[in-house]
Amino acid sequence: MSAVGIVAAAGSGSRLGADLPKALVPLAGRPLVVWAVESLLAGGVAEVVVAVPAADRAAFAAALPGTVQLVDGGATRTASVRAGLAAAGPAADAVLVHDAARPLTPPEVVARVLAALATGAPAVVPVLPVVDTTVVVDEAGTVTAAVPRASLRRVQTPQGFDRAVLVAAYAALEDGVELTDDAAVVRAAGVAVGTVEGDERAAKVTVPHDLHLAGLQVGR
Ligand code: CTP
Ligand code: MG
């Protein structure tokens, strides 16, 4: 089995609020996207395509190895992944879709996803349990129900797919439909999505506090 990685890196990072695109924000001196790409390669992915903001292509090219292919991302994450998928070379029979915003994903998570695909799973996502009490509120913010959390999971990336399954699911998805992850795209096409154990270190950098925590993880 050979896998191509698609890294969604075309977002602006509005919640992080930096003065450059989130994927270019440095962590211990290296842009988040560089960490994310290295994690995929270290975990066993052979080839990487990164979807970038069109206006910042030169900065991404300067930061990443020349073997990494860059494509212009779209207005939504779904559109960015679609662009990356279209650009990926024909050799790979598996696809791992990853967020540049998860810089410290341990290579073992990547390897677990690849191993599940190698056993024939069409789609697999890394997950963690929900540890907080989780509730439903009404418009006023009043709690209306508590959700039994034993069967809930938080979903991370990279998410792995049989390539033909993911290509067919994106082809079946109407243009302009936005889903928050790729597992949702294949589930919309009726594909069963399996799970492997995620890792807290694969946390997503969304707000400044997350970047602070990531910095502590790498000793900065
Ligand atoms: N992403 C993308 N193309 C978009 C929007 C998001 O490739 N049009 C990517 C981001 O670069 C990020 C990942 O999808 O690596 C997860 O998205 P998120 O954490 O929401 O990042 P941003 O959209 O950049 O942040 P924000 O929503 O705060 O603006
Ligand atoms: Mg976003």
TrEMBL record:
One of its GO terms (molecular function) is 2-C-methyl-D-erythritol 4-phosphate cytidylyltransferase activity. The keyword Isomerase does not apply. Gene3D superfamilies: Spore Coat Polysaccharide Biosynthesis Protein SpsA, Chain A (3.90.550.10). InterPro entries: IspD, IspD/TarI, IspD/TarI_cytidylyltransf_bact, ISPD_synthase_CS, Nucleotide-diphossugar_trans. GO terms for biological process: isopentenyl diphosphate biosynthetic process, methylerythritol 4-phosphate pathway. It catalyses: 2-C-methyl-D-erythritol 4-phosphate + CTP + H(+) = 4-CDP-2-C-methyl-D-erythritol + diphosphate. Its EC number is 2.7.7.60. PROSITE patterns: ISPD. It comes from the Bacteria. The record marks R149, K204 as: Positions MEP for the nucleophilic attack. The keyword rRNA processing does not apply. The record marks R15, K22 as: Transition state stabilizer. Pathway: Isoprenoid biosynthesis; isopentenyl diphosphate biosynthesis via DXP pathway; isopentenyl diphosphate from 1-deoxy-D-xylulose 5-phosphate: step 2/6. Keywords: Isoprene biosynthesis, Nucleotidyltransferase, Transferase. Belongs to the IspD/TarI cytidylyltransferase family. IspD subfamily. Catalyzes the formation of 4-diphosphocytidyl-2-C-methyl-D-erythritol from CTP and 2-C-methyl-D-erythritol 4-phosphate (MEP). NCBIfam families: ispD. This is 2-C-methyl-D-erythritol 4-phosphate cytidylyltransferase. It comes from Geodermatophilus saharensis.
